Amino acid sequence: MLYGKEHVQRYQETDGEEGHDWNNTTTLLLTTKGRKSGKSYTTPLIYQRFGDDYLVVASKGGAPEHPQWYQNLVADPEVEVQVRGDRFTARARTAASEERPGMWRVMAATWPPYDEYQQKTDREIPVVVLERVT
């Protein structure tokens, strides 16, 4: 997470006027359903557009395990997304092996530490594609 609850709250209250632009990059809010609890969890994530879709990276700073939000969307790929004032339902999927390299380059260009995070862990850090449903 970036700022955690405060980031999410300010982003939601201001339609992204506060929180969208962060550390020379951009963030969206991703809401997943807890795979065990069933509760909604909202996480601010760095993103980039990729055609009509949005890309985010399940890096967790290069930790050995995937972030909770990623595990949640694997269990239930229907998610809610907010980009500035635009709120929509999306279907989340992990980038396929043949499309991941190009998508990874896009994300590493917007947040160079992603390459360092990948070097810190044995797991392949997933690139997640968010495809608008509504």
From TrEMBL:
Pfam families: F420H2_quin_red. NCBIfam families: hi_GC_TIGR00026. One of its GO terms (cellular component) is plasma membrane. Residues 1-21 have a biased composition (Basic and acidic residues). GO terms for molecular function: coenzyme F420 binding; oxidoreductase activity. Belongs to the F420H(2)-dependent quinone reductase family. Residues 1-23 are annotated as: Disordered. InterPro entries: F420H2_quin_Rdtase, Split_barrel_FMN-bd. It catalyses: oxidized coenzyme F420-(gamma-L-Glu)(n) + a quinol + H(+) = reduced coenzyme F420-(gamma-L-Glu)(n) + a quinone. This is Deazaflavin-dependent oxidoreductase, nitroreductase family.
